[in-house]
Amino acid sequence: MTARSILLVEDNRQDEILILRALNKIHLANEVDVVRDGQQALDYLFGEGEFTSRADAVLPIVVLLDIGLPRLSGLEVLARLRADARCHLLPVVILTSSDEETDRLRSYENGANSFVRKPLDFAEFAHTVAQLGVYWLATNEPPHKR
């Protein structure tokens, strides 16, 4: 069986590079797919739009989701994922630079599995992302399909 992918939903190219570098540093065997806005994230997960070839694809093992995205916010994406039976149990980690308590509260209210603030320091940021990778890919035990 091949390793399931990670979906990174990030519109900031610099943050994307740092996240990919940090995941690569832990010798991640999983592929990381990147989309740049909320609508692309939904299309990717539901196999619609430019991602119709993914219609029957296996869901990623985890979604790393920014809040401040173009077209649809991360919170809107999260709400739609939780409302759809196909993605109801899909692990979603909010990975954001927001330190607003309302964003944290709304993330959990909409079903986020975790809320992680992006540190400003590169070394701390890389360490945080590496810890996320290890936890969600090696430590966490996802639910089995029914």
CATH level-4 homologous superfamily = Response regulator
What's the β-strand tally? Answer: 5
Structural class: alpha/beta
Residue stretches low in confidence (pLDDT < 50, at least 5 long) are none
At CATH level 3, the topology is Rossmann fold
User: Which range does the strand content fall in?
Assistant: 5-15%
Largest sheet, if any? 5 strands, parallel
Descriptive notes:
The chain has helices at 13-25, 38-46, 74-83, 101-109, 122-139, and strands at 6-9, 32-35, 62-65, 92-96, 114-117. It has 146 residues and is of the alpha/beta class. The chain has a five-stranded parallel β-sheet, sandwiched between helices. Strand 3 (62-65), helix 3 and strand 4 (92-96) form a beta-alpha-beta unit. Helix 2 packs parallel to helix 3. The longest helix is centred in the C-terminal third of the chain and has 18 residues, at 122-139. It is globular and about 35 Å long. The two termini are 19 Å apart.
Tell me briefly what this model is.
The protein has 146 residues and is of the alpha/beta class. It has helices at residues 13-25, 38-46, 74-83, 101-109, 122-139, and strands spanning 6-9, 32-35, 62-65, 92-96, 114-117.
